[in-house]
Design a protein that fits this description.
Number of domains: 1
Low-confidence stretches: none
Number of helices: 6
Shape: globular
CATH architecture: 3-Layer(aba) Sandwich
CATH topology: Rossmann fold
Structural class: alpha/beta
Strand order of the largest sheet: 3-2-4-1-5-6
Distance between the termini: 27 Å
């Protein structure tokens, strides 16, 4: 399985006072994500399923990217990808969706940094807002592990 981990786009709102789970993308976040489709299509990114956190900014990120790669019908919310996501939860998700050749998860930091690092056996993969990494998952492994294929930030993806 090929796994894509996508951190939500920019959602900075100075003075935000509502619950953090309701914080939406800002204009810059929306604008940059709308450019991802062309790049991801060129790279051959074709997830059979896109799972996202229930947080507003992750839902919006998943929808915008799915629209850009013509995959809106493949969107699903998964509460396990909310903050607190870890390697054990990833293992459950991979097992439940083993039929998908490519799986994209849209979520949050620091969870994605930690999970990606653990999957590839150490090191640090930075996940600024809008960053995406691609990991080829080792089949049959008890704990999710894999090989980092590539990592891209918003600067490259929004070109």
């Amino acid at each position: 399985m090929r796994l894509y981990l996508l951190r939500h786009g920019i959602a900075d709102h100075p003075g935000w006072s509502a619950p953090d789970s309701e914080r939406p993308l800002n204009g810059e976040g929306i604008e940059s994500l709308q450019k991802y489709g062309k790049r991801l299509t060129k790279w051959g990114v074709e997830p059979g399923l896109i799972l996202h956190s229930p947080y507003t900014r992750a839902k919006q990120t998943a929808l915008i990217v799915a629209q850009g790669i013509d995959a809106v019908s493949k969107l699903r919310e998964d509460a396990r990808i909310a903050p607190g996501f870890d390697l054990d939860l990833l293992g459950q998700i991979i097992k439940e969706n083993a039929a998908a050749a490519e799986l994209m998860l849209v979520g949050h930091n620091p969870d994605f940094e930690e999970v990606a690092s653990q999957m590839i056996g150490g090191g640090r993969i930075g996940f600024p807002k809008g960053a995406l990494c691609c990991i080829d998952v080792d089949e049959g492994s008890r704990t999710p592990s894999g090989t980092l294929k590539w990592h891209a930030t918003k600067k490259l993806l929004a070109k």
